[in-house]
Design brief:
Layout: E1 6-8, E2 11-13, E3 17-27, E4 30-40, E5 43-52, H1 59-71, E6 78-84, H2 89-94, H3 119-130, E7 137-142, E8 148-150, E9 153-157, H4 162-175, E10 179-183, H5 189-195, E11 200-204, H6 213-229, E12 244-246, E13 249-253, E14 258-262, E15 269-270, E16 277-280, E17 286-288, E18 296-302, E19 306-307, E20 312-317
Parallel strand pairs: 5-6, 5-7, 7-11, 9-10, 10-12
Antiparallel strand pairs: 1-2, 3-4, 4-6, 8-18, 9-11, 13-20, 14-16, 14-19, 15-18, 16-17, 18-20
The chain binds zinc ion.
Zinc ion (ZN) is lined by residues 55, 58, 142.
Length: 318
């Protein structure tokens, strides 16, 4: 095989070719099939890896990855793009919130994975070794889960060395979503990738189980802007857009099982100490009245009335 052939597992695409297929590997002693596109551009350039469906009910992000994989033309591409539209297919089929139904783990806390671990660890391990580490640039598409509303924002990893963090922040600015949030959540896709030296961002748009075209567009337009910036596709450098850089990503969680009544909306500006809502018991007694830990903006809110002990309630970017 020529060095120009792009190979991932048992799939390959020659120079100027696009290949769709499933790679099969063993997870919990059974076959696991991971769909992907390999798009090997006719011209030379970087390698962009795009994943979605690490959280498999975040549909706007999955719709965007499908659109990219279906539409990208290798004849007019410089470089290589690998698109994995649904990482956690068991969760997609089960419409599972937050976790992989095979082991109950949040897949975005187990990267870079473990070949000897449970299902999520094994899926992450295969994906990380065979796909993510091939990237010169990595984008993981997310959104609000089935029970989350959010204002679009882009997380850039603050893990890894300064040069990688700088490059990740630059990618986040180019992507074009207004709010940028630095994060170093251990086990997340982008933190594992950036620790391996790969500039990485995680984009959030959509939520509540719907995939409105405006939410899908934030992801698709951002990928388009990034590929233009990297000179992978025609169109020239994208125009800069104004952004707000949020240093801290403050999650508030429920101390109780009960009923959640938010008092604020996504994208609302809040003050330190401001009441953000109430967790109540069945009779309406207040169990918890979370206050904003800082001046900031509400980035996401859990929109489900049902709340479990330990569940996120909302997050403030500050
Ligand atoms: Zn997610």
């Amino acid at each position: 095989m020529s060095k120009d052939v792009l190979t991932v597992g048992t799939l390959s695409a020659g120079h100027g070719e696009k290949r769709y297929g499933e790679n099969e590997f063993v997870v919990q002693r059974g076959p696991y099939r991971l769909p992907m596109w390999l798009i090997n551009g006719a011209g030379e350039g970087p390698t962009l890896v795009v994943t979605a469906g690490v959280h498999a009910a975040e549909y706007a992000s999955i719709a965007a990855a499908l659109e990219l994989g279906r539409s990208l033309d290798p004849a007019s591409l410089c470089g290589r793009v690998i698109v994995v539209p649904v990482v956690d297919m068991p969760a997609f089929t089960a419409r599972s919130i937050y976790v992989c139904p095979l082991d109950g783990k949040n897949p975005n806390r187990v990267f870079p994975g473990d070949a000897d671990g449970t299902a999520s660890d094994q899926i992450a391990d295969w994906l990380f070794r065979n796909v993510i580490t091939r990237a010169t640039h990595y984008v993981d598409l997310h959104g609000g889960d089935l029970i989350e509303a959010l204002v679009p924002f882009t997380i850039f990893s603050r893990s890894g060395d300064a040069r990688v963090v700088e490059a990740s922040l630059e990618m986040a600015k180019i992507f074009g979503i207004h709010f940028l949030v630095g994060s170093d959540v251990a086990g997340s896709t982008v933190c594992a990738a950036s620790l391996a030296g790969i500039p990485s961002i995680l984009t959030e748009s959509g939520g509540q189980g719907i995939w409105e075209s405006e939410d899908v567009r934030w992801h698709v337009n951002g990928l388009n802007r990034l590929m233009r910036h990297l000179k992978m596709i025609a169109g020239g450098a994208p125009d800069p857009v104004p952004f707000t850089l949020l240093d801290r990503f403050l999650w508030l969680r429920s101390d109780h099982a009960g009923f959640w009544y938010p008092a604020v909306a996504v994208n609302e500006t809040v003050k330190a100490g401001q009441n953000l809502g109430c967790v109540k018991d069945c009779e309406g007694r207040a169990l918890q009245t979370p206050a904003s830990p800082a001046d900031g903006t509400v980035l996401f809110i859990v929109s489900s009335l049902a709340i479990n002990k330990g569940d996120p309630l909302l997050a403030v970017g500050a």
